[in-house]
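Please, structure for the following, as tokens.
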Amino acid sequence: MTADRRQSFHDIAHHSSDGSTPYLVSAWQHLVGHEYGAREFADTYVDFVKRWDWDWVKINPRAVYYAEAWGGVYDPDDYQGYVIPKKISSPITTPVDIEGIRELDPLKTPEFAEALEAARLIRQRLEDRAVLQTVFSPLSVLLQIADLPLYPDDGYANSNTTVEDFIFNQPQAAKSALEHIARTLAGYGASLVRSIEDGGAGLDGIFYAITGTVSGGYFNREQYLEFSEPYDRIVIDAIREANPDAVVLFHTCQADSHAAWFDDGAFEFLQWDPFLQGNPKVADSLTSVPVVGARSQDFADEGGIDRIAANAAESIAALKGTPFLLAPSCTVPTPASDRALETLRDLRV
């Protein structure tokens, strides 16, 4: 592609594209073995982006750095064959431990400071394309701190408590913790999108993930409005204030993930999985620019290549004349099939 990919990204975000770039392509992955240390991670992530020549960048930091910031301890040398390192200890052993969750200074908290430095390094080395950092919602972070599921049937969560006891049975304590987390993430998000000259990381925006918290009724509409939406707003408002040009890509994961709840014009991009039960189809009319393409699980091995090609072709055909972002529905597996990634990469225009 000869056009300025970074400018094309912003043109698509703001519905101002002239149509010469029908879509931009990207994918992201956990780079197990290279996730600790700002320079180590940045170098490896830049290599990953350049290897596949993705049109835009969604930084995919290690999955547990939020929990680590609030006292969780993990073994960086033992991922147990997955993308989450082995948990050594948790700051949450009983529901009352929620009272220990306080606001952090992201500039002085090692995990956030490391992530900011890595983001800054990636920005400086990939100036020709838009770069977004992943930021989990405060509710997702609270669940992670307690090692509670981020989506229904999360088989990797191993908590000492339950959502009912930790959140629903002590709502005021939960809301206090959520506000402390939200204020922390607000400062972190603002630093990510401020210019490097002003001490920030200079990113183009945020990939804002509520994970699978509303999938399949895990948190219903009323519970989302009570325990997530007010705190999401704190984070996103801070990002908008820090940089009015920053883009927000909103991600809701898994089946029955209620994408329509979030299609209110508040976010430039909206990502969901249109190929899972209960979700809008690719062709359904949405206000936000869609981020669609193929199911992330299909990248695990070569058996998914035909489905990737078919789903991507369906997305491209359904959105003809409507510029969008072509991407997997979530993080591709580690490891992923090179041929599967090539299938997506080769769709670049």
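The chain has one domain: 5-345. Residues 5-345 form a domain with the TIM Barrel fold (CATH 3.20.20.210).
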